[in-house]
Amino acid sequence: MESIHTLALRTRACAPRVASASTAQKNDALRTMCAHIRAHVPDILEHNARDVHEQAHAAPGIRDRLTLSPARIEAMCQGIETVIDLPDPIGETLAHVVRPNGLRITQTRVPIGLIGMIYEARPNVTMDAIALCLKTGNAVLLRGGTAAHHTNTVLVHIAKNALATTALPQDAIALVAEKSRSAIDDMLGLTGILDCVIPRGGASLIAHCIAHARVPIIETGA
Known about the structure:
Blueprint: H1 4-13, H2 15-19, H3 23-39, H4 41-54, H5 60-66, H6 70-85, E1 93-98, E2 104-108, E3 114-119, H7 124-135, E4 139-143, H8 149-163, E5 173-175, H9 182-188, E6 196-200, H10 203-212
Parallel strand pairs: 3-4, 3-6, 4-5
Antiparallel strand pairs: 1-2
Helix pairs in contact: 3-6, 3-8, 4-8, 6-7
């Protein structure tokens, strides 16, 4: 299995191309992803059924969050389309001042680079994270919950195949395949490679990430 360090380096190498992509190119990539997802609903449901079967003894709430249906997959696509319709924040001028000596200083929104997403058993988060990161000009390294391993794998495979037909590099998206909890700590220690990590899930996951992160972290609500 490829190491997380190697995977992250390859994904980070794609960040400049994503950062320089135009709004039209990013939106086209997201539209292409929607088309590919809608074309592969049976494949997604088959992989998701494997995850649900493996979680037969899990709490009902976990199984519900994990389970996909045609309607939930369509909602996933509609979420991506909502991101497409959002204004592109990159290049937006936030402030502009002229100093007494004539020096002009402008504050402008720019991409972060490589963002790490660590989340639990909601496979829809996979596509949410991909869409938001690409729209804002960032590459993304994903580490989803082990309960959704098969579903996340097929979703990322579909998304990467979609990107291969667009102006964005398909390796701008990567999924950490390692299932052990140590994979999270490996991600949190990718100093100089991972520019930011965002944990999304329960209070214990977020607390663990905050306690062990050696890279910048954006704390979210549980």
